[in-house]
Predict the structure.
Amino acid sequence: MIYRETGQFKASYAADQAIFRLVEDRIGMGAILFLAFVVMPLVGSQYWLETIMLPFLIYSLAAIGLNLLTGYAGQLSLGTGGFMACGAFSAYKLATAFPDLHVLLVLVLAGSITAAVGILFGLPSLRIKGFYLAVATLAAQFFLLWLFNRVPWFTNYSSSGVISAPPLAIFGDIWVTGFEATPVAKYLFTLSLVSILALAAKNMTRLKIGRAWMAIRDMDIAAEIIGIRPMTTKLSAFAISSFYCGIAGALWAFVYTGAVEALAFEINVSFRVLFMIIIGGLGTICGSFMGAAFIVLLPIFLNNTLLALGLAEAVALASHLEAMIMGALIIFFLIVEPHGLARLWQILKEKLRRWPFPY
Amino acid sequence: MTTAATDLRLDSRQAATGRRQRRIGGVLLAVENVSLRFGGVQALSGVSFDVRQGEIRAIIGPNGAGKSSMLNVINGFYQPQEGSFVWKGERLARMRPHLAATLGIARTFQNIALFKGMTTLDNIMTGRILKMRASFLEQALWWGRARREELAHRAFVERIIDFLEIQHIRHTPVGKLPYGLQKRVELARALAMEPELLLLDEPMAGMNLEEKEDMCRFILDVNEEFGTTVVLIEHDMGVVMDISDRVVVLDYGKLLADGTPDEVRNDPRVIEAYLGLVHD
Amino acid sequence: METLEHILLQPFRSIAETPMFFLEVLIGGLMSGVMYALVALGFVLIFKASGVFNFAQGAMVLFAALFFVGFLELGWPVWLAVAGSVVVMVALAFAIERVVLRPLVNQPPIILFMATIGITFFLDGFGQTIWGSDVRRLDVGIPTTPLIVGDLYINQFDLFAAVICGLLVTVLALFFQFTPTGRALRAVADDHQAAMSVGIPLNVIWTIVWSVAGLVGLVAGVMWGSKLGVQFNLSLIALKALPVLILGGFTSVPGAIVGGLLVGAGEKVAEVFWGPLVGGAVEDWFAYVLALLFLLVRPQGLFGERIIERV
């Protein structure tokens, strides 16, 4: 009885098309945004903001990107890490070549470059499907990383290999990257960007372009017959997905680690992001957040638990246990609930609709 | 078959033929000399027929006669080795699915081809995709054309939902719907394209009597109210003879007969090849 | 212009100038191709019999090698270590059939594929939780001294690997062709439903296939392990079997072998002659990009059956 649609009538199609159709949902979302934008910066310690919230938000963005491609358009990709690296290095080249460029412009341009690269590697999707495509996207992963690692132009001929991201300000002297940036500024900047992009993703998925993606995913033949062009639809999914991953990669290098290095975007990152969307829920935006939270928090939780148990060599053990648990959970979710945490959340809401009555 | 049902059909048929006779216009689509081979299998050989504006045209024939292949050729899914099309007097060398959709050819499938992961409403809304113009940026921002279009098309789609009486399943994922309703949603999606020519591949297969009658009524209503031309494949001879204006009979990929239901029914070749088995 | 000539022509010139060296590189590449083929073979077996694209084949290679070397380190004699590893791999096949495949039967292939990614992580984590993540040397007594034929230096180890691979393929071919189980396997590969309808127990067949793939993985693991040491990296090397499969076609045993040889030889030649010109480590991506280009031209692979789509 806490959560119910009874009595909430929609007088217009506009109201029925709203993202949050129920008052309870709107209140809940408002509360989450309030917590994220107001409470967290006030009470969060530097550890929380920088070590937990930043990677969580950035991974969420990458997960949204992959979810658009895999969850909505049905094109499996194992090249997320490569595309993130592409975003990071594009941003680095842009920021060093044009020092006066505004940080938002740097990010958008880096995302657009990554989108173009995404289209290039998405071309095989016109002829192949499923795991064939997964192997093709591995080519993006390995080739792009090699490119950034080995071609010195991308690192501005730096000899050390580890290059730090140049400082950029959002306005005046409010720095969001570099050494002078405060944790709160970095956090709020990332949070705002991720919120806006998440909302945009949600909008796309519930309108024409999202329906075209899902139509291609569910039955490409029928989609073609109602006039959806498979080519433009698949490539648009690759482009927009890569745009998101590119911005996530740029944020990772510029805001989170402060260092631009290809090693940060190894194949493991691709798998992590894939796991986020499987565990969080394929084809849901809010699931991308849940999956990211889960995968970011799992190693921290394991580490702390093992330390509390007083186990020596806990770091290596924790990473092995993490791999085991992730693997097992993937299988578990694929078998039991392919729609992931997001679906479990929905089921919980359905329960709340009736609570405390059994029916 | 109950008498009530027969009556209903006869009524609708008489009413329909009376009104429809005036509406049938010139040739909408002519299929000329189409031959289709899969490797060594000759699926269609030299089939020609035409479809007039506003009529209900049935394609019948035994299993494997090439009926579904014919529909697949018409909406460009199979490329025939020979043959061409004339659409509204204009000759087309080849048909492509996307071209067919832009010309206004919609289609349902023998074994339902809905988007299983989407709701009824979203499925039907996909039928409007060709008519939407908003850029992805407008969509991302839920702004400008994106917003206006979405609401306008939603209003249109709601009319189809009302027409086909599927209001109650608007927000249900189609994968969970029973077979009969899925067929109806598929029809709704095709109608959302505002087609000039509607291809129905066994729209009543696997339905019970009541569902069949509903479907017949919908097809006749679509034909009368929107003036949509219908080409349908159907095995139920009663239905075919009742609702169609003209019938094409295919057998082993060849055109066996073409004419009004009465002509076809009395054609000795058809009786031998097909109807003979039914009526005896 | 000059760089272009540098990259396009120079390597061919050096190939022409040092034909013996080129031959050595080529043979070396072919030999490591044999190793890729060993891994790819496991993939093909499973794909043929169950339609599952087993991403975890690489992890199974590492897993088997970890147990084998672990048993040896416990002081077990070689035959016991082999027997122990075989038991482990068969048990693994049982577990996978029971826990993963059976509940996911009739799911779309892409779901099963993702499930095998889950298996990959589980096995990598599990194996290393038990045996640790240090690099272990594995010596099963394969000679490593080079063999000199005329002017050519050939690594004896590689030769040995090629012989093992040849033997394995022959045994598998015989098994598939002439035993009742092999016949049942081929029937299942052809058509699951039809096979079931004539009374072939699908679950048993799957367990057998995964066991066989596990044993192939064990052989590959021991060979790779003796060459490079048993370590986590094996799992990544095995990933290269994926482009091998794309080249060869998912359903073809000869394809796996030819694909393996092509990838092995191609990447070695590219690395040695072109690598220095573009910064090295071309090996990292050569196989994948080759596969990518191949996909655009011939998606079904060299020996795969043509994919025909029907409405």
